[in-house]
Amino acid sequence: QLQLVESGGGLVQPGGSLRLSCAVSGFRFRYYDIAWFRQAPGKEREGVSCVNSWGGSTNYADSVKGRFTISRDDAKNAVYLQMNSLRPEDTAVYYCAADKDLRATCTMMKSEYDYWGQGTQVTVSS
After folding, report:
1. Where is pLDDT greater, at 74 or 120?
2. How many angstroms from the chain centroid is the CA of residue 106?
3. pLDDT for 60-98, tens place per residue?
4. Structural Rg of the chain based on CA atoms
């Protein structure tokens, strides 16, 4: 059983940056793929980025490629999402999630994720 806690959200102006953190408790963290999802009001939850269990594979939604970077630190049981050049359309609640199935590459299908955090609000506005 894993528990995930997100932090680092807040209010930022367009063009600004934020770094989200996902702290994971529970054993065998390093065997899980981790993803970031987001959900804006009135919209479906969508995949933003993911990193597989050995950190060699990452994936990004087209809307964030070149602006967001995902990373993981297995020694700290943590995953990070560095978000640069933020836009108003990035405003959403951001969730981290863990997938216990071993895969060659991580997936951003939310149905494949077994454990979820409570979310952290990111608001991009002037």
Report:
1. 120
2. 12
3. 999 999 999 999 999 999 999 999 999 999 999 999 999
4. 13
Q: Residue 56: what pLDDT? A: 78
The residue with tokens 């939310």 is 110
Task: For the chain, give the longest Cα–Cα distance.
Answer: 42
3-state secondary structure string across the chain: CCEEEEECCEEECCCCCEEEEEEEECCCHHHCEEEEEEECCCCCCEEEEEECCCCCCEEECCCCCCCEEEEEEHHHCEEEEEECCCCHHHCEEEEEEEECCCCCCCCCCHHHCCEECCCEEEEECC
* Cβ contact 78:17 at 8 Å: no
CA distance 73 to 13: 28
Q: Summarize pLDDT for 9-66 with one digit per residue, the tens.
A: 999 999 999 999 999 998 788 889 999 999 999 999 999 999 998 777 999 999 999 9
